[in-house]
Amino acid sequence: MATTREFRSGEHVIVLRESGRADGPDYVLVHGLGMAHEYWSDLAERLDATGTVYALDLPGFGDAPQPREPLSMEAAGELLAELLVAEGIDRAVLVGHSTGAQVASETAARHPELVDRLVLIGPTVNPRERTIMQQSLRFLQDVAVINPKVAAVGLAQYSEAGPKWFVANLRPMIEHRLERVLPQIAADTLVIRGEHDRIVPRYWAEEIAALVPKGRYVEVPGHGHDTMLAGVREVGELIARHAHGRPAGRVVSQPAEPMKAMQLSWPSALGFWALDYVYAVLRQLAFLTEGRRPPARWRTGDSAKPQVVLLPGVYEHWSFLRPLGDALNADGHRVLAVHGMGVNRRAIADTSLRIARALGRVRVPEAGRVLVAHSKGGLIGKHLLLDEHADALGIRGVVAVCTPFAGARRARLFTDPSIRALLPGDETIVMLGSATSVNARIVSVFGTFDPHIPDGSALDGATNIRVPVAGHFRVLGARETLLAVRDAVALLTAVDAEDAGDAADAETAGRA
């Protein structure tokens, strides 16, 4: 028989509905934005037979009163941890749907001692679509394939929450960076996605499973973002298997979909190729009108953020990367263009050495530097990471856009030695490919189709991000790329800060 009670912490109240049996796992079900515990009713009924089920109403939803301000995902995760302690649930199976997955992930990362296993169903927010407009459009697309019964339940609960409170909670959802939390989760984690989920694309769901140290991925066929309602039997069985330590889903070492180059017909490929070169020509001509020196405003920014150093590709002047430079400067970064590279035709090793010398002649910013590169520039950036003086130069990592880490076989179509140096068998390309120790400090960003790098830019051990844009040059000006690069810089900064904190803790412990 189900019982309902409240948990209160200050002005925040969580209403929980308990059901099931006492001799099994403790399932804690965390709903998504605008929902409440009723959304879990069918799934809770299936899980009742295997353990105790706690279905929650988070503050401001369902029967829980609204606080004055919406909680951030971090604060909601801490509140959930308080509830687990108060209820004596010390080895919970946390199950979060959509925004609830963000809350559950925060709890699991911050309080590993309280979480036995974690299940993330349709987890948000895809970092390549981190705007309210994009998420709203995805929601409307998903509604088009939703089950009518499910739509009725959802509409009733959205109405109960009220549009004002719903909108107020959108900002914390959008601003939360789930990708930074996932690597800190110690619990065995199962990521569940509905096959037709428009809000959570497959590549993002697989990336989540890859970022969690002990993550597995499974897809439920025939359903969308509402998969735990419309596919309640399949989802219930998956959760129960996972809760009892039986393998569910598959291990994902890297997100599969972003690794694949789009297969196009020759007419389509030629069309993309033509558009790509039109963009490249326009960027080359822009050099004549935008000036030979970077904008003065690039020299100013937030000293707490790393300086960004731009590394263009072959036959590219620094201004080729101006869209990225402008966006990162607007985000608070100081941006540096290294002069003297010309059109970047020198050998990779020689250029790397020259850049190292140039950076060594100026003071290293306290927040360090992140290299943002395109094509060959990404190879130069990796070469710099391998330099013994990389740390002294303050280089935190490299964000590489459309970089041929495994070489570019189409370079054989050119006679220019500076392009043929990018062939897969080139000595420097082979050396860089075998040097995997720095790959974790690289974020590789690439599009759906690259006419110059048909084998793709994915790099084992790096963070690989595919943006929904085709081309080798056009990618640089796409808004999706700007967002991905901004997040990549933030990710490298956060990882570096965590490493520095760990080193400081170890040094302190050593003194003790």
From TrEMBL:
Species annotation: Agromyces ramosus
Alphabetized InterPro entries for the sequence: AB_hydrolase_1, AB_hydrolase_fold, AB_hydrolase_sf, TesA-like
Protein name as catalogued: Pimeloyl-ACP methyl ester carboxylesterase
SMART domains: PKS_TE
Keyword set, alphabetical order: Hydrolase
Domain Thioesterase TesA-like: 30-239
Recorded superkingdom: Bacteria
